[in-house]
Specification:
Strand content: 15-25%
Strand order of the largest sheet: 1-3-2
Helix content: 10-25%
Number of strands: 5
Largest sheet: 3 strands, antiparallel
Number of domains: 2
Structural class: alpha+beta
Number of helices: 2
Shape: elongated
Distance between the termini: 51 Å
Order of helices and strands: EHEEHEE
Length: about 100
């Protein structure tokens, strides 16, 4: 077994586990609920961990993890009506409610 991923956020570790499982890797999740022990342990020691069951899968699994973009940069858009800058995730201007075209 090899540790492939750890993160303080349980959801992030679960996501990586699910991605690896969907790509056919055998994995185990450790420390899923260990955060309650953080008073007696260092917080880092309670982070959820994703472990590969087969050491030979490490490099291929690592490539998959690295291909996931957690910080996708989205282009902002300027409202044509009020010139307010909006995130790409908005379909309507947050200020004047004009639709993005």
């Amino acid at each position: 077994m090899k540790l492939i991923y750890t993160h303080e956020n349980r959801i992030m570790a679960l996501n990586i586990r699910n991605v690896l499982i969907n790509h056919g890797f055998d994995v185990a999740l450790n420390n899923e609920f260990a955060s309650s022990a953080s008073g007696g342990l260092a917080p880092f020691d309670t982070w959820p961990e994703v472990w590969l069951l087969k050491d030979d899968d490490f490099h291929n699994a690592k490539k998959i993890i690295e291909s996931i973009s957690y910080n996708s940069i989205q282009a902002a858009w300027e409202c044509k009506k009020c010139q307010e800058e909006n995130d790409e995730s908005f379909d309507y201007c947050w200020k004047c409610h004009e639709e993005n075209e």
